[in-house]
Amino acid sequence: MSTSKLGDITATGAVRFQRELPGPIERVWSYLVDSEKRGKWLATGPMDARVGGRVDFKFVHRDLSPECGETPERFRKYESSPCEFTGKVTRCEPPRVLVITWGGTTDACSEVTFELTAVKGTGKCGTDEKSDKILLTLTHRRLPNRGEKLSVSGGWHTHLDVLADHLEGKTPKFFWTTFAEMEQIYDAQIKSL
């Protein structure tokens, strides 16, 4: 089971995660905006990192880890044809804030916010700008129903674990193994809301 902190799910259709990651901040930022680096933990695809810019996502979950495992039945269709969609950048303040639409380019889509901040007291020579640790806060808003909250919660939790492993030089676990475990945990959490 994943040992990272669970995301906070709200009744208003949002989920929020925080992860402390190895810095510096520019390194973590590059894993958000650079297709090749983003593809190691989430999805490849070009990003025009400016307000109004397009971002393409191509998810190939089996490539996120060298480990093998069983893909859940409902996701097997993506093994031969990856899941792809386009989003739009709605806010971009490098290297601190990135906001994108999720699952489309309209304002009616859900929205993901990535915020990066230096963890106080970890910088070299007393400066937080070169902090050794960066706090990533990811908030996914406008989730319309329980099913979306569940899928997004398990998905982001697992993707962020993969990101942390890459940044720490560890080998990530097989994506779907962790996802299945986390989906059960989030299912219980959502039922209690």
Describe the protein:
There is one protein chain. The protein has a 7-stranded antiparallel beta sheet with strand order 1-2-7-6-5-4-3, with helices on one face. The radius of gyration is 16 Å and the shape is globular. The chain starts with 7 loop residues before the first strand and ends with a helix. The protein has helices at 25-33, 35-38, 77-80, 146-167, 175-191, and strands spanning 8-10, 14-22, 54-59, 83-93, 97-102, 110-118, 133-141. Helix 4 (146-167) packs across helix 5. It has 5 helices and 7 strands; from the N terminus they run ββααβαββββαα.
Strand order of the largest sheet: 1-2-7-6-5-4-3
How is the main sheet built?
7 strands, antiparallel
Low-confidence stretches: none
Sequence of secondary-structure elements: EEHHEHEEEEHH
User: CATH class of the domain at 18-143, please?
Assistant: Alpha Beta
Structural class determined from secondary elements: alpha+beta
| C-alpha end-to-end distance | 23 Å
Shape: globular
Specify the oligomeric state.
single chain
Q: Name the CATH superfamily assignment of the domain at 18-143.
A: START domain
Radius of gyration: 16 Å
